[in-house]
Amino acid sequence: MTPLDKVHSLPIWRGTIHAEPLGGGITNVNFVVQDAEKRVVVRIGDDIPVHQILRFNELAASRAAHAAGISPAVLYHEPGALVIDFIHGRTLSAADFQHPATLDAALSLVARAHRDIPRFLRGPTLVFWVFHVLRDYAATLRDAASHHAPLLPALLHDTNRLEAATGPVDLIFGHNDLLPANFLDDGTRLWLIDWDYAGFNSPLFDLGGIAANNGLSPEQEAHALNTYYQRPPDAPLWRSYRAMKAASALREAMWSMVQEIHSDLAFDYAAYTATNLETYRTALAAFEDTQ
């Protein structure tokens, strides 16, 4: 069954439906669907073990995020499909985060997600520990004889150093994939979408992800840490944060390396890998400056 066939097979439609592919996704196949009564987004995708994506976890996180006022409502689900309310708005770009008001709104939304989503979670859920993810990606790449395999010894050495430098962590419920396109602006407020990688984690991973994925300046990073923690960052916090930021950038690069092997989506993963490796190397250099 094709993804579009899966959309048409869902038992929720009223009247004739019109389904259009929703661009921007680089993990799942998504559609905007209009029937006689409503407009919705349909996310088509099964579990993806190589990325530690388990759909029961995405569903639980999506429901809790809606209950917390962070994300649109889940309207229906079945194996391989998740239907959520359509939000009229636009996805953000990295350039949007250069505007102080947008950055502050995003930081406020992420802090609310960290604080409030656990109040509404039901059932089992996952932990997202980036250093485990990086080691698992390395094993996947080795097993597949990826052309990136020669990089792995150095990257794993870096992974161990960054994990040691992170030190003790606070535990929150993280989104763990804060690409700019996972923020929606409806003209009044921001929404956070796509909970594929959600799980308990350090807040520094999401904060580092915002910075790495959106090219924040050191001044913006200091502002973000000050805003989130309500105090100026001291040297230990900077060290832990920069370790997590580098790990976040490395995870995005190694995620893309795995996608080069496993994904059938029409996307230039090789170029995405190269871009994120450069982001990682810049973040690693900033981390090493704190040593």
UniProtKB/TrEMBL annotation:
GO cellular component, one term: cytoplasm
Signal peptide: none
Keywords: Kinase, Transferase
GO biological process, one term: phosphatidylethanolamine biosynthetic process
Pfam family, one: APH
A molecular function GO annotation: ethanolamine kinase activity
Domain Aminoglycoside phosphotransferase: 19-242
Protein name: Choline kinase
The organism of origin for this protein: Paragemmobacter aquarius
